[in-house]
Amino acid sequence: MTMAPPSIVAVVLVTTMVQIASAMGIAIFPVLAPNLAQMFDVDASYVGYQISILFGAATLASGLVGTAVLRWGACRAMQCSLWVCAAGMLATMAGDLLLMPVAAVLVGASTALATAGAAHLLFRFGPPQHRNLIFSIKQTGVPLGWATIALVAPALTVAFSWRMPMLVVLVYSAACALLLERWRIRWDDDRNPGAAAKTNMLSGVVVLWRYPTLRYLAMAGFFFSFVQLCIGTFTVNLLVQEAGYGLVAAGVMLSLVQIAGMSGRMVFGWVADRSGGAITLLVLTSLAAAAGCIASLFVSSDWPMVALGIFYALFGIVAYGWNGVMHAQIARLSPPGMVSVATGGIMAWIFAGILIGPALFAAMYRWIGSYSTTFGVLAIGALCSAALAVLARRAERAT
């Protein structure tokens, strides 16, 4: 007797829940950057290097996560990602500067594993006609996790200590890992313990490179993530060090970016499903993000709070709205049975953009001496993603 497929609502909720844990583990570093920098007696801009280490580990892990999902099952892979994230928070709570790179590596590996597992489940159980929306809803977990940390972490730090928000992320991750056991046997019934013999560390990257549309989308993903993570990493520093806002107020603005980005992902996913022009939508969001980067040149203490909030909400929509649509297109265009492997490939490109982006932004800031001006230069990255998305659209039409 064939079992009925699980509810897509349950799958989306669970994968989003896991994505939130992963995002909170990442966001804790830039949101608390001023406090951590003071404690460790380093410049706050060094958070760019911490984020780069994190996503460097994620980039390397992306070559293996597709195989891990096939071998262990997607649900088990997500459980493992949650426990690794919890371990990263524990390493951070030790308060030792030498352990900060270790924490970054653990959280980075957790992120790669969670994303590949979620993509496998959503593609397997989700209806094709709603794929862009489903992937976009799951990806709202990223800005939701960031927004939660941006709102809660500064307040918890002021009321208790910087370790308290770390403990919150640790407990949430562990609780989610235990909860996933409820669905593991049913959702992992397609696992293949011998899958390692069929793939290798570069399988995902090679798969994407063989197909022109996937190749250009992957390169566009590099620049999309480059821009997005620079905004998430350095917005608080810009507002605190140049615009004269306090840490809590700056955290609220960053939360607006994340909440608006969450809404943008759902709207863009719905539009992509209805219009059938997903890649064209990626072009338009890139151009709008470039405009937001240029507008950042003029951010100052003279801006009214309401105007600043509106700006960051719009900036968040266009800079963060691409992710779900991108993942859905990779899944749609990937070879049969290779969704998790292709997802590992695109994540390698995305994580590479994040690896290089914050570190390069930090280096540029130290040379330029102004966060707002460095954000203006960031517009070049957004224009590159637009150009590559145009090439992907042409390649798709040519096939």
Put the structure in a nutshell.
The protein has 399 residues and is mostly helical.
Written account of the structure:
- With 399 residues, the protein is mainly α.
- The protein has one domain (8-188, 199-398): MFS general substrate transporter like domains (Growth Hormone, Chain: A, Up-down Bundle), CATH 1.20.1250.20.
- The protein has helices at 8-31, 33-40, 47-72, 74-93, 100-125, 131-139, 141-159, 163-179, 184-187, 203-210, 212-241, 247-275, 278-295, 305-320, 323-333, 339-368, 371-377, 379-398.
- The longest helix has 30 residues, at 212-241.
- The N and C termini lie far apart (41 Å).
- The overall number of domains is 1
**Class based on secondary structure composition and strand pairing:** mainly alpha
CATH architecture identity: Up-down Bundle
Dominant shape: globular
Fraction in beta strands: under 5%
Low-confidence stretches: none
Radius of gyration: 20 Å
Number of helices: 18
List keywords for this structure.
81% helix, mainly alpha, globular, Growth Hormone, Chain: A, 399 residues
